[in-house]
């Protein structure tokens, strides 16, 4: 067994191995954006399946920011959510996994749309004003308090895929003339202020991770070198781990890979993660088309990344890591068809379309 299966620690987080489950929307909340038994089962199955760190979510700091949004996710300002989350986290810990909650910035705030989801290609969002920023800071501070009190091992900032934070760090999207625009330090400012708010709500040593675009994959967009500069500023400013991602509205890449399927290849973000890793002293999680154990081992052995992160492979096989531990080291059965993503974009519950029929009955994998 390689290093991937050995315990790993960073900041306050202790992992039983180096495998991370990347954040994945699931549409498994109820009408009030609270947890359901199905939501709980999703995570306990992952924990039983052997993964080291589960990144849960995406969770929302404030419910009203997402009214009408495609994805149905838990909201951290809903009464009772803290207790529900504490029960879930306790069970995940008991099953041996660490749990970090991903949180995302507003989709709409104070009557305006401020960022697109991956689907809103033609949307031109409005910039955040002082009132918006103050509201976001207060909501993130509360999110830090809720997550820490619920026993989460940390929080991951969603700063990718065309959300308002990924637009803020990008020289392509950020056209501001004030202290939040221009130089890399200015473009990193809002994220760093949110790190401080989260820590104010939780504790100074509460681990704050980030999933950030390593490239916008648009013409004249944020390049990997721009991203490496921002990553270095963020790591110095309190971010304890980085998961480089990519793309967003109008880009040639979606988070799940190139738009042109023929261009898709395994480990399509490895070289981007390796470039970010050169710029920072914190662990880098390599995500994006990681399917083959040998390739993952090579990534860690050659120092291109520290942790291996996967999304779709765990939708298809929540027990993938235990399968590998048991000696069956054949690659993930996920064929990267994106059927699961399409389901969630239709507001349906997360599922692998290759292993279940529409009526929910099992089909041969
Ligand atoms: C169904 C689905 C839901 C996703 N939800 C999120 C999310 O909530 N937050 C996020 O940062 N990325 C999300 N992603 C992107 C994944 O976390 C991951 O970065 C991407 O799918 C590439 O990894 P993979 O090849 O292992 O799937 C989602 C992807 C899929 C397919
Ligand atoms: S639906 Fe397709 S992409 Fe999603 S988990 Fe199943 S095989 Fe993988």
Question: Can you walk me through this structure?
Answer:
The chain is α/β, with parallel strands linked by helices. The protein has one domain: TIM Barrel, CATH 3.20.20. Helices cover 33% and strands 15% of the residues. The chain has 11 helices and 14 strands. The strands form 4 sheets. The protein has an 8-stranded parallel beta sheet. A two-stranded antiparallel ribbon has the order 1-2. A two-stranded antiparallel sheet has the order 6-7. Helix 5 packs across helix 6 and helix 6 packs across helix 7. It starts with 7 loop residues before the first strand and ends in a 20-residue tail after the last helix. The mean pLDDT is 92. It binds flavin mononucleotide and iron/sulfur cluster. The site of flavin mononucleotide has 25 residues, from strand 4, helix 9 and helix 11. Iron/sulfur cluster binds next to helix 9 and helix 11.
Name every ligand kind in the structure.
Answer: flavin mononucleotide, iron/sulfur cluster
How many discrete structural domains? Answer: 1
What structural category do the secondary elements indicate?
alpha/beta
**Strand order within the widest beta sheet:** 10-9-8-5-4-3-14-13
The appropriate CATH architecture is Alpha-Beta Barrel
Count of separate DSSP helical elements: 11
The fraction of residues in strands falls at: 15-25%
Q: Please report the total strand number as a whole number.
A: 14
């Amino acid at each position: 067994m390689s290093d991937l299966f050995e315990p790993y620690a960073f900041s306050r987080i202790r992992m039983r191995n180096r495998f991370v489950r990347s954040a994945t929307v699931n549409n498994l909340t109820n009408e009030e954006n609270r947890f359901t038994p199905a939501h709980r089962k999703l995570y306990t199955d992952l924990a039983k399946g052997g993964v080291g760190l589960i990144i849960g979510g995406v969770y929302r700091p404030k419910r009203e920011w997402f009214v009408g949004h495609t994805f149905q996710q838990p909201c951290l300002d809903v009464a009772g959510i803290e207790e529900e989350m504490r029960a879930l986290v306790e069970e995940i810990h008991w099953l041996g996994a660490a749990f970090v909650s991903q949180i995302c910035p507003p989709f709409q705030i104070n009557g305006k749309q401020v960022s697109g989801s991956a689907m809103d290609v033609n949307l031109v969002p409005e910039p955040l004003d002082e009132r918006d920023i103050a509201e976001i800071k207060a909501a993130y501070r509360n999110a830090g308090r809720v997550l820490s009190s619920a026993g989460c091992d940390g929080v991951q900032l969603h700063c990718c895929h065309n959300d308002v934070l990924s637009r803020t760090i990008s020289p392509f999207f950020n056209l501001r003339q004030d202290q939040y625009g221009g130089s890399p330090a200015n473009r990193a400012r809002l994220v760093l202020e949110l790190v401080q708010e989260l820590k104010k709500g939780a504790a100074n040593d509460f681990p704050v991770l980030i999933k950030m675009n390593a490239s916008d994959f648009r013409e004249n967009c944020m390049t990997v070198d721009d991203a490496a500069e921002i990553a270095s500023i963020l790591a110095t400013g309190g971010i304890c781990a980085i998961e480089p991602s990519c793309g967003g509205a109008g880009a040639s890449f979606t988070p799940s890979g190139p738009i042109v399927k023929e261009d898709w290849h395994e480990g399509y973000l490895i070289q981007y993660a390796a470039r970010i890793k050169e710029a920072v002293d914190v662990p880098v999680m390599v995500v994006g088309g990681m399917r083959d154990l040998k390739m993952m081992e090579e990534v860690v052995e050659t120092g291109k990344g520290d942790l291996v992160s996967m999304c779709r492979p765990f939708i298809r096989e929540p027990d993938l890591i235990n399968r590998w531990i048991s000696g069956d080291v054949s690659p993930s059965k996920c064929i990267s068809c994106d059927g699961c993503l399409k389901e969630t974009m239709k507001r349906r519950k997360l599922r692998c379309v290759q292993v279940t029929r529409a009526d929910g009955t099992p089909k041969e994998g």
